[in-house]
Amino acid sequence: MTRYSSSSLPENDGQDQFAKAFHTGPDAMVITDRDTGRFREINTSFTERFGWSREEAIGRTSLQLGIWRNQDDRQRMLDTIAATQRIDGFEVTLLTRSGDERSAHVYGCQIELRGQVCLVLTIRDITRLRAQEQALRDSQERLDLALDSAQLGIWDWHIPSGMLFGSIRAAVLHELPARDFHGPFGEFFACVDEADRRRMRQAYARLTKGPENDYQFTYRAQLGSGEVRYLESRARLYRDTDGQPLRMAGTLLDITEQVLRERSLEASEEKFASLFQGSPDPICVSRVRDGEFIEVNPSFCSTFGWQAEEVIGRSSHQLTFWADHGLRERLFEQLMRDHSLQNVEVQFLTRDEQTITCTVASRLIWVDRQLCILSTFRDVTRRLQSEADLKASQEKFYKAFHSSPDAITITERDSGRYIEVNEGFHRLTGYRPEEVIGQTSVSINIWADPEERLNMIAALKRDGFVHHLEMRGRHRDGTIKTVDVSVEQIELGGLDCLLLTARDTSELRAAEARIQHLAYHDALTDLPNRALLMDRLKQQIALLQRHNLRGALMFLDLDHFKHINDSLGHSVGDAILQMVTARLEASVRQEDTVARLGGDEFVVLLTGIDGSRMETARQVRQLAEKLRDLLAEPMLLDGHRLQITPSIGIALIPDDGATPEDLLKRADIAMYRAKDAGRNTVQLFHASMQKAASERLRLESGLRMAIARREFSLHYQPQIDSRGSRIIGAEALLRWEHPTQGPQSPASFIRVLEDSGLIIEVGHWVIEEACRTCARLLAEGRIAVDEFSLSVNISPRQFRQNDFVERVLESLHKAGLPASLLKLEITEGIVIQQLDDTIARMLRLRQAGVHFAMDDFGTGYSSLTYLKRLPVDSLKIDQSFVRDAPNDSNDAEIVRAIIAMGHSLGLELIAEGVETPEQLALLEEQGCHTYQGYLFSRPVPFDDFVALLPDGKTKRAP
Ligand code: C2E
Ligand code: CA
Ligand code: CA
């Protein structure tokens, strides 16, 4: 800075040096008159800088030249000079001649020049400086802006002092207060993770040793929130002239987001790779340009059969991968247009040319700057197959639904509305599908019992199904039907539905009831059978006991029913049983039970009789007699006029037993007693009968032992021809001598033999024994072949034995007896059972020479019709007629008729039971000369009989 003292004047005395300095100085200089402000002198620099020439400027004021930009500046300058006599670097803005602005520092002082006070002013142009300063400011701002917009923080570390400067952002990134940081290095990096700080130190150590000065480092700043911020620092190391580290300055950038993004990107890439490799669905990547596969996954290989290396580098066309190439081209165009394809169904060919149907999804992707197609396949071959199967099964279901004999309905589960009903439903309920679809079971009132419906719903909720629930449904006409209901839950088109099947079990129930009925009823008469009778009896016993009443059990057995059945046929027998049933049912009260035990056995259970035992017995007997009379009334059947009589046994309840079994047994015993008493009678059970019954049992076991012990023997009763009092034959009669009880009555034991079947064995013995003794008589010459016959009684059961004929012939053969000597006595009972078979048997024996006599003739059902056909030789007039004939004209008439009949048929006649000469006389009178009876001889043991024979010690008839 040049300073002019007021004592040194530029134009004074040629002081050339001063003038030269004034005129050649680099700064513009002017001298002005203080009071007028006129320029007195300017220098070259002024002219150059402000554009005014000397001539233009000298004599004029600065105001006239318009030098001041702010005229106030001039006054301030003058005021300052007035006050201090000088100005020093007064900053102003001045204008040049052409109007350009110039920043300037003005220096000046007052001087006296030729008596005049002048101002010497030096104007230093600082325009460039100012511009440079501005430019620096601007660039600093721009840097800040740039740092800011790059979100960079900066720091500057002075290494020898350890002090560090950090920008606001740098401070903030380190979670320091939001202002410039100026403090120790360690404080600035306090938030850095311990491990990172160690790495940072190691990196710095490497940097100080090595030639490199640039440094880049990423570290983690631990934030107070617990989060981690990733910071990247780029810095440069500055060294002093000795190469020692002096400063290090750098930037800081928050790269947290980038790190995290990269991490997730890494993860997603990994994910993609593992998805690609591990996907169960085939995936491939192919290049758009040439269609070549560049990547396939393992599923692709296993599905389509190619190895990855067979596929990669080849195009689908080369592989014949697409079944339809045209489709491939169309889809390719679509993909190019839309950039993606969604679930298109396509057929592909595998390596071994199997067709696989897949749904394909494709999209375009970039791989290594090549446009590619990423395709994912889903093999739906099996799904399509199962869809087809499903469709088939649905069709089957449809058929089953519509053709089922059961009623089937499908209802919406929640609303209960019918969606579909079948023909079976129409049959069962009477409703047509169009009448019920959309309705509910409640609205058409199909269930008879609302409670049953609620039970069904409850079961459905509980178990999810209903199986075989018996319910009652209502037909549209109101009839109630029992149905067997099953319900399943099904889904139809995404809708929860119920499939209900109902089977009409009314018929089944009826059949069941019928079976039940049959189990308890007799098929022929529809009467309760034994089981039901026992059941009712049991109930009645308890009931009567409770009410202190009496009842009765009536056991009825039809007399000689078996004969009728056998002779007239089963249909007649059945008709009789039905008629008996009707008669019985008609004559008892509603509350009484008529039961059939089987065969011709009926039981009537009478209940609720009030009164004493005596009174009850009287009433019941009365009723029984009434029944007996009623049953005995003739029946007209099939042209036959038949009379059936019953034998009735009665047991009183509870007097005669406390259990059904006891009561039935006792009524049965009473019934047997009635039979014994000559049939067609009523017997009330009495304790003594029990004895008789057990007696019978005892007898039977006695008879069994008798066979083993050979306690049987035969007695012989001679048969006489009254005209010469000559023995013409004998009847063999069975005798049993009990070891302790002596001789037993044939009348009782023979019946037991027959009932028990023992007669077969015993009867056979009789025949053999008879043949043997007769042969002996013949051999001994006591009888002659043509003049004697031995009669043997044959029981029906014996005659029915299959080998009866053979046994008889064998007995004859064994004994060596001519068959003509044997005469078999049969009863009408034998004859009328299976007439044809009877005749056949008789004929075979007759052929061998055996004779037949019809025993007890007149007591049975014998009719002329049978008699004519039967190969019998003689009739035996029953002793009951013979006995009374002399006194009873009726019996005499019968005897007469029998004899007449015998004669007309050419049959021999023999009367039995002839005890008196009157009886014999009557017989002879009628032309019957043959007889047997006490009159001549009782049945006698063999030896006695032999004695009666002519060649023995002859006993002559009177
Ligand atoms: P039946 O065939 O009518 O036999 C004649 C019965 O009359 C015999 O009774 C005989 O003793 C009896 N009698 C004979 N003359 C007179 C008489 O003048 N007055 C009376 N009151 N009775 C006379 P018996 O021996 O007690 O036999 C009874 C029945 O037993 C027989 O009746 C016969 O049906 C049966 N019977 C006897 N022996 C046999 C046999 O070996 N086999 C079979 N199946 N039945 C036999
Ligand atoms: Ca006989
Ligand atoms: Ca007889």
List keywords for this structure.
single chain; 958 residues; alpha+beta; Beta-Lactamase; 8-stranded mixed beta barrel; 36 helices; disordered N terminus; disordered C terminus; binds ligand C2E; binds calcium ion; EAL domain-containing protein; PAS_fold; EAL_dom; Biofilm_reg_signaling
Instruction: Compute the separation of the termini in Å.
Output: 218 Å
- Tell me, rounded to a whole number, the average pLDDT: 88
What is the architecture of the largest domain at the second tier of CATH?
Alpha-Beta Barrel
CATH topology of the largest domain: TIM Barrel
Any idea what the shape is?
Answer: rod-shaped
- The Rg value, from CA coordinates, equals 75 Å
Main sheet: which strands, in order across? 29-30-32-33-34-35-36-37
CATH C-level of the largest domain: Alpha Beta
CATH superfamily of the largest domain: EAL domain
Largest sheet: 8 strands, mixed, barrel
Bound molecules: ligand C2E, calcium ion
Structurally, the number of domains stands at 6
InterPro entries: Biofilm_reg_signaling, EAL_dom, EAL_sf, GGDEF_dom, Nucleotide_cyclase, PAC, PAS, PAS-assoc_C
Domain PAC: 213-267
Domain GGDEF: 549-687
Protein name: EAL domain-containing protein
Structure description:
This protein is α+β, with helices and mostly antiparallel strands and 958 residues long. The chain has 6 domains: 2-131, 2-Layer Sandwich (Beta-Lactamase); 150-260, Beta-Lactamase (2-Layer Sandwich); 279-379, PAS domain (Beta-Lactamase, 2-Layer Sandwich), CATH 3.30.450; 383-510, Beta-Lactamase; 527-685, Reverse transcriptase/Diguanylate cyclase domain (Alpha-Beta Plaits, 2-Layer Sandwich), CATH 3.30.70.270; 718-731 and 757-952, EAL domain (TIM Barrel), CATH 3.20.20.450. 44% of the residues lie in helices and 28% in strands. The protein contains 36 helices and 38 strands. The strands form 7 sheets. Strands 29-30-32-33-34-35-36-37 form an 8-stranded mixed barrel, surrounded by 6 helices. A 6-stranded antiparallel sheet has the order 8-7-6-11-10-9, with helices on both faces. Bound molecules: ligand C2E and calcium ion (CA) (2 copies). The site of one calcium ion (CA) has 4 residues, from strand 34.
